[in-house]
Automatic annotation (TrEMBL), chain A:
Record flagged with keyword Cytoplasm: no
Source organism of the structure: Kuraishia capsulata CBS 1993
Predominant place of localization: mitochondrion
Function according to Swiss-Prot or TrEMBL: Carrier of the growing fatty acid chain in fatty acid biosynthesis.
Domain Carrier: 40-118
Stretches of the chain forming a coiled coil according to its record: none
NCBIfam families: acyl_carrier, PRK00982.1-2
Name of this protein: Acyl carrier protein
InterPro entries: ACP, ACP-like_sf, PP-bd_ACP, Ppantetheine_attach_site
Automatic annotation (TrEMBL), chain B:
MF terms (GO), sorted A to Z: holo-[acyl-carrier-protein] synthase activity; magnesium ion binding
Protein name as annotated: 4'-phosphopantetheinyl transferase domain-containing protein
Domain 4'-phosphopantetheinyl transferase: 6-114
Keyword Secreted part of the UniProt annotation: no
Gene3D superfamilies registered for this protein in UniProt: 4'-phosphopantetheinyl transferase domain
InterPro entries in alphabetical order: 4-PPantetheinyl_Trfase_dom, 4-PPantetheinyl_Trfase_dom_sf
Record bears the keyword Lipid metabolism: no
Entry keyword set: Transferase
Length: 121, 160
């Protein structure tokens, strides 16, 4: 319940920052809110990150792989990256300090960072 | 005698900032997304209060000033980042730096925390605007005089 109650998904705020579409996970989360929350596995993190990128206009339609580099493969520049990092913070209810954010250059590195955060949900 | 230690430049379409600020269902003046972004990029003592003053005006001109301030600050700090050594780039935080203009209108940029560690480093900033573009260029030089010997603005007092 805690995981669900603190999930940004229930607030639907992604639609405000990344306006293209509201991910299907929103519906799943609302439907499941009275059952046990799934553990935040790396697979679930990856799925949510891929959805996040799919809803961002610059990366919509691109293949999002764990190995995808933000700049080389996804074509994001520094301003895009700050936006994406902020959106990841919203998505998983975490704070990513600047010096940590600078080290996140691939989807896999983002997944690993989130997985290392005890309070990510 | 000064030695050039780094050169950085950045170019930005100002309209990108405008788009980001207008994104989302909340109006610009109360958007949490804008607040978070501004707090991440703007210096809390020197830039953020000015930004908030313009924002609180809740007018088109206030909005334009916010966009201009943010875009110029962003480009200037990106240029600073590019002229730093890799070890300092890893510690870089935009909010630690601020861009202002001296009494003659010339822009300068300073990072008080950085200057404490590297008192000999001096940053020269040039900014240019045209249509939708802003560019910033920064030269990092190592000076014989520690920065504490400079004016409060972090630049030499010169006669124009």
């Amino acid at each position: 319940m805690l995981r669900l109650s603190c999930s940004r998904l229930l607030k639907g705020s992604r639609a405000s920052a990344f306006p293209l579409r509201v991910p299907s996970l929103v519906a799943q989360a609302q439907w499941r809110q009275y059952s046990a929350a799934p553990a935040l596995t790396k697979d679930i993190i990856q799925e949510r990150i891929v959805e996040l990128f799919e809803s961002y206009d610059k990366t919509a339609g691109k293949e999002i792989l764990p190995s995808s580099s933000f700049t080389r493969d996804l074509g994001l520049d520094s301003l895009d990256t700050v936006e994406v990092v902020m959106e990841i913070e919203n998505e998983f209810s975490i704070i990513i300090p600047d010096h940590e954010a600078d080290e996140i250059k691939t989807v896999q590195q983002a997944i690993d960072f989130i997985a290392s955060q005890d309070d990510a949900c | 005698m000064s030695r050039i230690r780094g050169l950085g430049t950045d170019i930005l379409h100002v309209s990108r900032i405008e788009k980001i600020f207008k994104r989302g269902p909340e109006p610009f003046s109360i958007s949490k997304h804008v607040t978070k972004l501004a707090e991440r990029v703007l210096n809390p003592h020197k830039e953020l209060p000015v930004f908030q003053d313009y924002r609180n005006q809740n007018t088109d001109s206030g909005f334009r000033e916010c966009v201009r301030l943010f875009a110029t600050s962003w480009a200037s700090k990106e240029a600073v980042y590019k002229c730093l050594d890799p070890a300092e780039q890893r510690k870089f935080s935009m909010a630690h730096w601020y861009k202002q203009n001296d009494q003659h209108g010339r822009p300068f940029i300073i990072g008080p925390q950085y200057s404490k560690i590297h008192p000999m480093d001096k940053f020269l900033l040039s900014v240019s605007h045209d249509a939708d573009l802003v560019t910033a260029t920064v030269i990092r030089s190592e000076d014989g005089d520690p920065i504490s010997g400079l004016s409060e603005a972090g630049i030499r007092q010169t006669t124009p």
